[in-house]
Write a structure and sequence with these properties.
homodimer; alpha/beta; 434 Repressor (Amino-terminal Domain); Rossmann fold; 3 domains; 6-stranded parallel sheet; 6-stranded mixed sheet; 12 strands; about 15% strand; DNA-binding
DNA sequence: GTGAAAGCGCTAACAT
DNA sequence: ATGTTAGCGCTTTCAC
């Protein structure tokens, strides 16, 4: 049932080498006659080449590994999409492992993918503000013979052979903060993902700058439920908050759900804003004010950069973000 | 920088075999002393085993291939999630390729993943009502030495060595149809995905049965935009429709968006329902009536079944679906 | 133009 | 308990 090259060669009455030259698209010359004979037999036997054996020799298997925090999180899903699009275009296979943002798991997974012959590694996981993590990641990158792309802010030795793709989260935070300030908000609550993740802490930092005052930050799980529960806690502690920001749209959606249940009108009683601009944001009622990140483009850029001929090209690419003002934010009720 | 087994063995002053026995977790006996020496060297060299070479010998690489219609479609994303969860649990690597529902591409991708050593293949793509496709898929499955799991209704030779996971779409359609009929709807429009996909045609068929009358079906792209445009066309052609059903929630969301823009109130002027029960459905206003499919569970079941010892166990598993009535459907305005 | 043979990194008999 | 050797399926010198 298997059918390997040797068998094809035998049945076609040619040598292993010739069969290989025909089937592997080698630029080597083979007579038309033999070529056809080999092709015919391969077809008949339904020969499927063994890419692993091939990779063993040529040293590359057209495979890219991708490390994400969580499949199912719209943030990562969008980037996965972008990566997949380029992968299809360049006939690369993508193997994704979700690390649950556990640094230990992330490092292990890097090894695993490395072991399985990935020639490009896209680390979309986190970018943790944790020295041990950073050192571990640096070590992995050093021992990796392929190209590594880091998505998000990673404080990695600039001499390191890596590519970086990131969004200007700080700027996005500022814009959102200024928007809220202009609407008169001074008592703002934030339901935030883990602040060890640098992109999250950047968001909050930017927001604080734009706002001009410290918001009340609560770290919760980066899910709809996290946003829901977090909002409840924030409002319990400080019922005078006039706005809630989620560091991811799902969380803002959770916040809005809580408001709806409590009879709080958005934005009349409370303004709500999110981050990432997931597709459904504009279909909510009220539609969601958010910071747009070009996540798909970032995913595309990640793989494209990695696959591009490694010249002294820009090794880092920062994407601008955009404030998308919709209906969920409004002036403070006087 | 590479560092292979041979190098480890040499530096540790042992034979290749011994190093292998230590590092590959073979049950073979090795003295404590040598074991430690090997481990130390491996650590120091940051030795990363070559899984491809290993796979070449043991014949399996703990890798599962997954074929989906489109990464980014909430329907597939949910199943991917389920698969990933089990994969993590069983330390399997998952390689996903999205086929855009193109039968040709799906078959090619199957080969590709097969070539790359997948030992389980999960086909979540489509299940097309197309003889050529069916035959092609059957051929691929036959030549595949691993286990194949088909998600969705696939009319495959029952003697074939495959596992099946599916949802009772027909039943879901009936329930939704009856629900609408009970509310008095007789003029119903459907924005539908491609009817060549058997799960889609099952949905429409069930719906028709439950409704007791033929709905007006329009095939569009299975996206929010498809639902939006489709609804416009349907209402242009027949302004007297009292309900719109999308064969996927995104399409229903598009329909609701169109209504909102046109000043049509849901469900007062028009009822809207969807399918799949994506998480955000309950956060819409009005919240979305839909048919719940246990997509994550189905993904989990797919991989779990494939990995289970292949006894004469149930080779097929059909999941019940559930009608989730929310606010977007209501009685026909009299 | 074609074939024989070496070897990619590793494991599994088979000795010892 | 350890080492030697023969391959896994394939590509690639190197002869012819």
């Amino acid at each position: 049932m298997a059918g390997n090259l040797k068998e094809v060669a035998q049945r076609a009455g040619v040598s292993l080498a010739t069969a290989s030259r025909v089937l592997s698209g080698s630029p080597y010359p083979v007579s038309e006659e033999l070529r056809e004979r080999v092709m015919a037999v391969a077809e008949e036997l339904d020969y499927v080449p063994n890419a692993q054996a091939r990779a063993l020799i040529v040293g590359s298997s057209r495979t890219v590994g991708m490390l994400v925090g969580e499949v199912g999180d719209p943030y990562f899903d969008a980037m996965i999409n972008g990566v997949h699009r380029i992968a299809k275009e360049q006939s690369q296979l993508v193997t994704i492992v979700s690390t649950g943002r556990d640094p230990r798991r992330e490092l292990d997974s890097f090894r695993l993918l490395q072991s399985h012959g990935a020639s490009v590694m896209i680390v979309a996981g986190s970018g943790l503000d944790d020295p041990a993590y950073r050192e571990g990641l640096a070590a992995r990158i050093r021992s990796f013979s392929g190209t590594t792309v880091l998505i998000g802010r990673h404080e990695i030795d600039p001499e390191q052979r890596v590519l970086c793709v990131q969004a200007d989260n700080l700027d996005g935070g500022r814009m959102l903060g200024e928007h809220l300030r202009a609407l008169g908000h001074t008592r703002v609550g934030v339901v935030s993902g883990s602040s060890v993740v640098s992109s999250t802490s950047d968001r909050v930092r930017g927001l604080t700058e734009g706002l001009g005052v410290e918001p009340r930050v609560l770290e919760v799980g980066q899910t709809r439920e996290g946003g829901y529960e977090g909002t409840r806690h924030l409002l319990d502690v400080d019922p005078d908050l006039t706005a809630i920001v989620g560091t991811a749209d799902q969380m803002a959606i959770g916040a809005m759900a809580y408001c709806r249940e409590q009879g709080l009108r958005v934005p009349t009683d409370l303004s709500v804003a999110g981050w990432n601009d997931i597709w459904v944001g504009r279909d909510l009622v009220p539609s969601l004010t958010t910071v747009h990140l070009p996540l798909e483009e970032m995913g595309e850029a990640a793989l494209r950069l990695a696959l591009a001929p490694q010249t002294a090209e820009p090794r880092a690419q920062t994407f601008p973000v955009q404030l998308v003002v919709r209906e969920s934010t409004g002036p403070v009720r006087s």
